Amino acid sequence: MFSKVDYVIADQLENLARFFMSPKLADPACDAEDLIGGYVRNIGVAGGFNGYLPGPTGSLFGLPFGSETSVLAYRTDIFEKHGLKVPETYDELLDLACRIPELEPGMGGLATRAASGHQAAHAFLLHLNPPGGAIFDDAWNPVVNNAQGVAAAAALKRIVDCGVEGSQTFGPSEAAASFAQGRSAMFLDSIAFAAGFENPANSSVVGKVGWALHPMGVKRASQTGGFGIAIPKNAQNKEAAFLLMQWLTSKQADLMIAMEGGNPSRFSTYANAELNAKHPYAATFGEALKYADPDWRPITDLGEHKRRSRRHAVADPDPGAGHPDRAGRRRSAHPRHHGRRRLLHLVAVTPHAEARAARRRPYTTRGRAPRAASL
């Protein structure tokens, strides 16, 4: 699974500027200002500040399509029963996470991902930005072990300690299942799980779920991530791919996706009255996205980091021997990245050219070759 940075450095994505500048191709009704800015900056922009954010040198290489942010789900019946206030701050969230199990024996306070590896890292990052923390400073020096980083780690530990049995092994699906089955009173993670909580086939809490913004520390800062659409350099019909990209992210298509429980990419979709009548949580999600942080975790060139790591391992298998500070300097110069952004690649080809195009693709998406769209 690679990030936008990996693809752009490898020169595998089309810069979208020339397509949007074409009167023949650009849709006058696109309304780019309506696209959720945090998603666009996180998913589609590269070449600016720190290489992965907007800036004077940045360019647009993709559009969000199935992106996500973080919100808080809570059991309205449990909160009403005990006269609990929906948490606005992290202090309130952490207090409730451990108070609810006392009020409701056998029930966990807050369900969260926490399994060793990516899941624990993701959960830690969810709690790092609101108190003003970061992994690196602007000069790529690690600052994760400062006061804000320690507070985020302590928050995650407290949440897991006050969770249901087995919480430390949860991925996102297990955490969502714990909430949907009534075993946890709160759930802090992606908006992608919302529709499932209202599906009686899989949920025992239908009609008992309230939604609130990601609690704040010194600021509000919810996650950004998920999927986007880009045009590979080896696409056969790039103009047709761009037209399809515009339609898939249009107001009409975005609303259709949201009505079926998918994740929209436009503010106007979240404000739509018909959508809110069917999915009442939509308005809260739209408000949360005003605080979606495109820099909630760093995005670096994974391939180059791996190449450098291999070279260091061959040349110096024990980088710390005799040089106590060398390993620290290398970590600072070549930051690791475990929070990669995912891109769906739109390849517009004719049916008979699909196989040839696939053979020319030197990369994969999540272990598979990018899917081709036959036009």
Spell out the key features of this protein.
single chain; 375 residues; alpha/beta; D-Maltodextrin-Binding Protein, domain 2; four-stranded mixed beta sheet; three-stranded mixed beta sheet; globular; disordered C terminus
- Give the N-to-C terminal Cα separation: 26 Å
Computed structural class: alpha/beta
pLDDT < 50 stretches? 303-375
CATH class of the largest domain: Alpha Beta
As laid out across the biggest beta sheet, the strand order is 5-6-4-7
Helix content: 25-40%
CATH architecture designation of the largest domain: 3-Layer(aba) Sandwich
Radius of gyration from the alpha-carbon trace, in angstroms: 22 Å
The number of helical elements comes to 17
- Work out the number of β strands: 11
- Specify the biggest β-sheet: 4 strands, mixed
Overall pLDDT, averaged? Answer: 82
Q: Count structural domains.
A: 3
Topology as a string of helices (H) and strands (E): HHHEEEEHHEHHHEHEEHHHHHHHEEHE
Oligomer: single chain
- Envelope shape: globular
Strand content: 5-15%
